[in-house]
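Crash report, auto-generated. Payload:
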Amino acid sequence: MPDDVQFMSHHTAVEYKIPEPSRLTIHFGEELAKGRIIGHKCPQCGKVYMPPRGYCPLCVVETTEADEVEVANVGTITTFSVITPLQYQGQEETEDYVQATLLLDGADTTIMVMRMDGIAIADVRMGMRVRAVFPADGRSASDSQSIARGMGLGDAVEHWEPTGEPDLTREQIAEHIL
Amino acid sequence: MRDVAIVSFAQAPLDQPPGQTETLMLLPTITEALSAVGMTRRDVGFTCSGSADYLTGGTFTFVQMLEAAGAWPPISESHVEMDGAWALYEAWVRLQHGDVDVALVFASGRASLGVSLRETLTFQLDPYYLAPIGADYVSLAALQGQAVLARDARTEKDLAEIVARRHKDAVGNPNAAISGSTTVGELLAADYVVAPLRAHDIGPPVDGAAAVVLVAGDRAREVCERPAWITGIDHRVDPRRAARWSRTR
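Recovered output after restart:
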């Protein structure tokens, strides 16, 4: 870089309000706090979206509480990453952990970046059958709001455990790996 | 040049459930605009949307809104990082190619999520000369306002008369954020935000969505009794240096 190149610092800040969650998102969080996972089933194509979005993007129709279905707390790891936390300033994580993409039984959509606490990293594999374990005494109503804002099941699940069932094959999960 | 007409328009109601997402504001709005001319999303040859991620502070938020347009099977679509007016311009240009006759244009925004819209929109300006001096959109509009008043020998009273008429015209429109009977005297008594502009001269930040259907040629007459033909349209970009902007053209 030539010596006469100057660098200028440009520090900016923009403030936004955290959007309030929609009624549907709040409802999803409240049910999760009770250990119940709900989705919306499209009245036209029958696909189940979990978390529910309030519409089916394939049929482009709105879905409502009339379309609510329950999704199982067991499912399949379709893909995963082992995260080795970089020790940058402010980093709180020190140990490796797994983030998995899960297809819960009854849902047609996967949930991603689910932290698989409770399962040894070496045991995690594509096609593995797992079960969500919720806190025994449930979560408070205020927790359900932060749960609702989270990705997938947010912080609702306490940990995961293998179900012991045979793994699903690559072909069986092929459409849900991304 | 192909003749292109607006055959349909729909707007999301101002009154939305709390926390309503832009996608869910858009979905029924698009359906309404298309249904009004007997069309579905399958009839659309080109889709163009306009939105500004800076309003909500979420990168690529416009990608989710595409689900309201119905993007499976894959569609031919484009997005402009600005507003629906520019998206409409792009759709008009696309229709000139002659291979498709129907374009869907939509736009949405949740301006209520910014703590200060004046600060937020400043980030869309030149970061070297304009943003650091806080040349926000209201100040720039005020400069333009002064220039236009001087050019036309008009006064702030003329501005207030326009506002009073608009407030009155808006009565009975459920989608008008502001409406009612105001007098020029009341309006002029209000404080400046940036002279010569007062709060009522500046649009309030609202959340909303709208959709327009454009149809080219004879097809427009087939679907609509009174198509609104676009007889002139243009899009310009200001030069980068603010000193070179003309405020009175």
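Post-recovery validation: The radius of gyration of chain A is 20 Å.
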